[in-house]
Amino acid sequence: MLTTCVILSPRWSTLAIVGGLLLVASLVVRLPLGVAPRPPMWFVSGFIGGCLGAWLGDGLELFLRVSTLALVVLWGSGLIAWVTPTASLAAALRFFLRPLRLLGAPVDQWSLVMASALRGLPMLRDQAQAVLDTAKLRLGQDMATLSLRGYARLSVDVITAILSATSRGAAETGRAMSMRGAIESQDGATRGARVRLGWVDVAVIAASLLGVAGIVACRLML
């Protein structure tokens, strides 16, 4: 709900309310500072250059608002990934998409695909790291002297190799699951998983509803 409000109405009041809720949630779960990624120097310099260019073009306020919107969306997505076990996301997705069954949506199949995709993320990370290490060994010291065009070609080659290796691994995994009949058993396990709301979930839902109410109130008054 909050993400939808932020995207549909990216005003400063909306960003402030959602950002405040995310800050409170981060403090409540005692999220360590070490889990937050540190932006590289080229990103910081690019942001400063973008601010200067937007200021010269009289678009600094819009540039800062769009940057804040991206930060809030990434912050919320990262917070969900940091505090929620991977195995629980598929069951939670099935729980929240349950009303779409009235429209004939394949909710169980969507949750199964979600669970399989989440289990494949570690494989994707390993494949990407292996391809990057291979590229570094192949180029050696020549990598530091590459031009911008050379980096672009290298990026295309690396991304293509990662997608090829990941697709091959996903096809082999799916073939093995089909031969062992694990798809039906996983589907049954996903259906059998029950999502029970505790007091923490109720508090989060209440805070989200209050945030949405505050966004609507600010929208009507301002």
From TrEMBL:
Q: What membrane topology is given?
A: Multi-pass membrane protein
Key words, A-Z:
Membrane, Transmembrane, Transmembrane helix
Organism whose genome encodes this protein: Schaalia odontolytica
Q: What is this protein called?
A: Cobalt transporter
Tell me where it mainly resides: membrane
Transmembrane ranges?
12-33, 40-57, 69-93, 197-217
Cross-referenced InterPro entries, in alphabetical order?
A: ABC/ECF_trnsptr_transmembrane
Q: Where in the cell is it found?
A: Membrane
- Going by the entry's taxonomy, the superkingdom of the source organism is recorded as Bacteria
Q: Which Pfam families match?
A: CbiQ (PF02361)
